């Protein structure tokens, strides 16, 4: 089976908005002072969503790379306690890590395209195709929340 067309579609799903705004577009131009705000009755800030996206994507990448990965404890270690990043550098690091891990996952797709649908030898039947969809779905869901929060904060 030639899986390259499927790999190309998964790559587009991970990197382009298609039917929705990308993660990168959702945070572009976000005022620094709004990163840690929690709009009325919202349980988290945009910073907490960004960090949650970073942690979850990293976890999925590392899980997909092999059986030696130990996932963070759910849910405590998937969400930062602090409402705001500790510094501008922390914000930038999180954004850079999201991009780097996304690119690493895309490289993994290319490297293992012959095993795209083959269940991992570990886990509960997961495969690389499922993990790609999981990253895209999870990031898209929280990107929508970021946009909603920006609208509530008046910056969208």
Automatic annotation (TrEMBL):
InterPro entries registered for this protein in UniProt: DinB-like, DinB/YfiT-like
Name of the protein: DinB family protein
Pfam families in UniProt: DinB_2
Superkingdom per UniProt: Bacteria
Annotated DinB-like domain residues: 23-146
UniProt xrefs under Gene3D superfamilies: dinb family like domain
The organism of origin for this protein: Rhodocytophaga aerolata
């Amino acid at each position: 089976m030639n899986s390259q067309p499927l790999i190309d579609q998964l790559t587009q799903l991970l990197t382009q908005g298609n039917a929705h705004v990308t993660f990168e577009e959702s945070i572009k131009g976000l005022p620094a002072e709004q990163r840690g705000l929690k709009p009325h009755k919202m349980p988290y800030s945009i910073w907490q969503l960004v960090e949650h996206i970073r942690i979850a994507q990293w976890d999925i990448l590392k899980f997909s790379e092999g059986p030696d990965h130990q996932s963070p404890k759910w849910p405590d270690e998937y969400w930062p306690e602090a409402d705001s990043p500790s510094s501008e550098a922390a914000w930038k690091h999180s954004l850079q890590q999201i991009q780097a891990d996304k690119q690493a996952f895309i490289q993994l797709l290319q490297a293992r395209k012959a095993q795209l649908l083959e269940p991992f030898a570990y886990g509960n039947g997961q495969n690389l195709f499922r993990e790609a969809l999981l990253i895209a779905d999870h990031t898209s869901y929280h990107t929508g929340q970021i946009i909603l929060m920006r609208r509530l904060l008046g910056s969208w």
